[in-house]
Inverse folding.
């Protein structure tokens, strides 16, 4: 199988590329990535000389560049390319509309022109919005509440419309909150771990009782692989970790592992606007097809913390670059929570 992966230099994309090359000796992968702030070629340095792997720099919104990348012989496209951070979508929504919606449209058109046999859109549980109780299955109404989630929901609807209108062989995976190595340190877990490793406080939004369902990146990648190989075109599949935890529980675990006193290191700051209180995914549909998460959450989290401890050379250059400006702008003005 010849795969075109977009956004393969990001967190989930790079883990996916590495895992697929390791587990499928007969696959080849072209990685098409714009190298935004979140895309890091160092994430794939271990496979850059693999003859089955090729990197091409480009933007999914650039039709000509996509056309060249898709070329002849691509069997499947897996679209990871996206702006993904909710806080950034609150301050700069337009970038999300461009990459997440327009970029998906450009890819769908290229897939249609070239008769590619599988197009997998990597989406998110955030498209369902806040889930008050129970869990959202794939037929649950889309009710996104942040500009990020709305851009992903818009793309999902367009992807499904291509199936109905043109018969495009599309699939959607909707993953829950993902953690693991190589995650850009703006997201909760790597931000808090690297803050603590730098002996800084961690900014917990509001009361910290928001609930997320945590999924190890390897389980997420195997879920995407499963949808790609076994999913029915025109369908979406939830990929949930089944590990519902409050943010404060996660924070406590990180503090304990790193030997930091909660009184000193936790700073409750004002809440994120429109903050979704709870996500919960029902993944029965994908489980019926034979996928299930394998990584124990407590073990996976502990290993992830250790990975950041052992890979300072990966995250230090990130944190001292443009990230430092972002961090200041995002957090400096936040007041303490009441
Ligand atoms: P995040 O990693 O941004 O993922 P998402 O918003 O897509 O779920 O945030 C996970 C949770 O952690 C979310 O409820 C917001 C919270 N959070 C904080 O409390 N402080 C922070 O500095 C960040 C980045 C997130």
């Amino acid at each position: 199988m010849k795969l075109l992966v977009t956004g393969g230099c990001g967190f989930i994309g790079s883990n996916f590329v590495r895992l697929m090359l390791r587990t499928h000796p007969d696959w080849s992968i072209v990685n098409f990535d714009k190298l935004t702030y979140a895309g890091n070629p160092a994430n794939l340095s271990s496979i850059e000389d693999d003859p089955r792997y090729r990197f091409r720099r480009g933007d999914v919104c650039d039709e000509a560049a996509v056309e060249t990348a898709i070329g002849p012989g691509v069997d499947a496209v897996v679209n990871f390319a996206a702006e993904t951070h909710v806080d950034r979508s609150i301050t700069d929504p337009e970038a999300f509309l461009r990459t997440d919606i327009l970029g998906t449209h450009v890819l769908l058109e290229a897939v249609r022109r070239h008769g590619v046999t599988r197009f997998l859109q990597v989406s998110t549980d955030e498209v369902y919005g806040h889930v008050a109780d129970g869990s959202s299955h794939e037929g649950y109404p889309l009710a996104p509440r942040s500009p990020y989630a709305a851009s992903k929901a818009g793309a999902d609807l367009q992807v499904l419309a291509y199936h109905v209108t043109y018969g495009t062989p599309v699939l959607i995976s909707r993953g829950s909150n993902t953690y693991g190595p190589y995650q850009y340190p703006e997201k909760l877990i790597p931000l808090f771990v690297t803050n603590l490793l730098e002996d800084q406080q961690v900014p917990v939004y509001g009361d910290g009782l928001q609930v997320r369902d945590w999924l190890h990146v390897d389980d997420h990648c195997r879920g995407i692989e499963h949808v790609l190989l076994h999913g029915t075109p025109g369908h979406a599949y939830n990929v949930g970790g089944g590990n519902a935890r409050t943010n404060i529980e996660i924070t406590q675990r990180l503090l304990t592992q790193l030997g930091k006193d909660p009184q000193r290191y936790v700073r409750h700051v004002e809440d994120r606007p429109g903050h979704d209180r709870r996500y919960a995914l029902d993944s029965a549909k994908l489980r019926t097809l034979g996928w299930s998460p394998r990584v124990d959450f407590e073990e996976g989290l502990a290993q992830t913390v250790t990975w950041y401890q052992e890979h300072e050379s990966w995250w230090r250059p990130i944190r001292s670059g443009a990230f430092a400006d972002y961090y200041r702008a995002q957090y400096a003005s936040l007041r303490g929570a009441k």
